[in-house]
Amino acid sequence: MERIGDLTFHMGPAAIGAPDDLEPAIVEFVDAAEKSLDVAVQELESWPVAEALIRAKQRRCTVRVVLENDYLRASPTAAPDPRLPGGSNEANRDILVALLRAKIDVRSDYNAAIFHQKFVVRDYNRATQGLLTGSTNFTETGLHRNLNHVMTFRDPALVKAYHDEFREIWSGDFGAKVPARSGPPVESPVSGVRVRALFAPDHAPEMEIVKQMLKAERRIDFAIFTFAQSSAIDDVMRRLIRDNIKVRGVFDPRQANQDWAATRVVQEAGGELYTASRNRRGFGKLHHKLMVIDDRVTIGGSFNYTAPANRMNDENIVVIGHGEETDPAARAAQERLAGYARREIDRIIDRHGSRVV
Fold this sequence. Notes:
Layout: E1 2-4, E2 7-12, H1 22-31, E3 36-41, H2 47-58, E4 62-67, H3 90-101, E5 105-108, E6 118-122, E7 130-134, H4 140-144, E8 148-153, H5 156-170, E9 186-190, E10 193-200, H6 205-213, E11 219-224, H7 233-242, E12 246-251, H8 253-256, H9 263-268, E13 272-276, E14 289-293, E15 297-301, H10 307-311, E16 315-320, H11 328-352, E17 353-355
Parallel strand pairs: 3-4, 4-5, 11-12, 12-13
Antiparallel strand pairs: 1-2, 2-8, 3-6, 6-7, 7-8, 9-10, 10-16, 11-14, 13-17, 14-15, 15-16
């Protein structure tokens, strides 16, 4: 874990060589709630996280949860006896039942696009308020087998932005279903480090990523689950490579080898690219959505580099740092965080990487 005051960064899971365990970080965050928890996550399959939410409800916290409906539906091949296993999503449904029995309010999106959020707002407008977000789903595989990250912030402006986003979601506004209602992206100094939060589709996060990339002076490093040619990010990478900016990244192999993936076009332009081979027992997939620019700016969150993520899905990204930061203390802090993310990208490439040729 890397911590700068009210900002923490976790890279996991430790079981497959990453520095941190993600599930305890989420449980600890939830267990600190005194008044309320608003949870927006694509999938909830982790019993330790679910039990932490139930404990919060038993402490008389207000707990609200929004989940992706696709993971709550019964399998077409499910056994007719509800006491018997009913397919790969059975754990999600078991946890849903446990939450409802605890009188926790749960809603699902019922939206044709993907509800892909992964964030928790704690104790809005109180001294214990906080925000947790990142790339991981709250599942057994997401927390113990897939390479992911989690970030936490204690900052009133960021907490309010995510609280307002949750209120939209709770009211039934999902993805591109309704006109954008979010205000402009929020930027706030968290322990001296500038942090900028954006939501898809309202803020078109792809354009923010492109803007940050165009400020690169030396290099861009990334670890990404899904990266499609339908995004503008591959076009910018090819332009930067022509301008002698080093572009180095690692993909999940199943996504990278698809015909629509950006892998080949970036590699042919001169990018140094790898796929994360599953050469270690227990390794599921590379699920990060992580970029480091000039070892100074870090971009994380739930956002894959695809057109649907930008235009249709419910997503969020967090930009940590500013490429033109002049304050020495703030610059040192943001470089510490970027260094932590960069070391994990390096480790993934060194331990799991197979060069794309």
